[in-house]
Specification:
Helix content: 25-40%
Number of helices: 8
CATH topology of the largest domain: Rossmann fold
Radius of gyration: 19 Å
Number of strands: 12
CATH architecture of the largest domain: 3-Layer(aba) Sandwich
Oligomer: single chain
Number of domains: 2
Order of helices and strands: EHEHEHEHEHEEEEHEHHEE
Largest sheet: 5 strands, parallel
Strand content: 15-25%
Structural class: alpha/beta
Distance between the termini: 59 Å
CATH superfamily of the largest domain: Response regulator
């Protein structure tokens, strides 16, 4: 397994390399966002996990994250935040990160998070090689490898893909988890704070605007008219509601 560590603090980078190599991983370390992008956007990039610091000289970790996702590079990525502030965490998720860890961190926790991302990568590859049988529409809590059907659309959680109108939209793990949670509460109004707490484990006093950014992106993927959504509905002053089978509009 190949891990890329993007970290400009020499002592931390050396410590990560030593411990990861001791665990049997092949490790490459770079110190800047520019160097990370050169590796991650290469055609022969064969990485299994990226550990990406937010604060880097030159291009920061958020920009690296959003750039590789826009380029179609979906290697599982753990972001390291200096303070662990909720705003930084949400910004990282919005950029496409799969997980985060606040500095200073316990090495055992870091290793567990990396192992979790490696397992997720293996599950995604296995799901891509073995197409899952569609589950019954209306499934309450879609599982890791489930396929959820609604109308002419489908979410393939194992492959982290949303299929809409003949197009395939890759989802980040956070987007998939948010969509899984909304589907699991189909027809119910879910508050932004509940989504932050139950999907990402963030405190209730966190700024909830990040949820709106995720919803804008999901609507862009799945709605025929994102400005007039029929599946991801806003409930004013409360939150959102997912509707699997909205009423058919009758032409006048």
């Amino acid at each position: 397994m190949r891990i890329l560590v993007v970290e400009d603090e020499q002592h931390l980078a050396d410590g990560l390399r030593f411990n990861l190599e001791a665990a049997g991983y092949e490790v490459q370390v770079v110190e800047t966002g520019e160097a990370a992008l050169e590796l991650l956007l290469a055609k022969d990039a064969a990485l299994d996990v990226v550990v990406l610091d937010v604060m880097l000289p030159g291009i920061d970790g958020f920009t690296v994250m959003s750039t590789i996702r826009k380029a179609g590079q979906f290697v599982p990525t753990l972001m390291l935040t200096a303070r662990g502030q909720a705003e930084d965490v949400l910004r990282g998720f919005a950029a496409g990160a799969d997980d985060y860890l606040a500095k200073p961190f316990d090495l055992a926790i870091l290793m567990a998070r990396i192992q979790g991302l490696l397992r997720r990568g293996e599950w995604v590859r296995a799901a891509a090689q073995t197409p899952a049988e569609p589950d019954t529409p209306g499934l309450q809590i879609p599982g890791l490898n489930d396929t959820y059907l609604f109308g002419d659309k489908s979410v393939h959680f194992g492959q982290l893909e949303l299929h809409v109108r003949g197009q395939v939209f890759p989802l980040t793990l956070m987007e998939a988890n948010l969509l899984r949670y909304l589907i699991g509460h189909e027809g119910q109004t879910v508050s932004r704070k509940a989504m932050l707490a139950e999907v990402w484990g963030l405190h209730e006093d966190t700024d909830t605007r990040a949820i709106d950014n995720f919803m804008v992106r999901l609507r862009r993927y799945m709605e025929d008219d994102p400005k007039n959504p029929r599946h991801l509905l806003t409930v004013r002053a409360l939150g959102y509601r997912f509707v699997a089978n909205p009423p058919v509009k009758v032409s006048e």
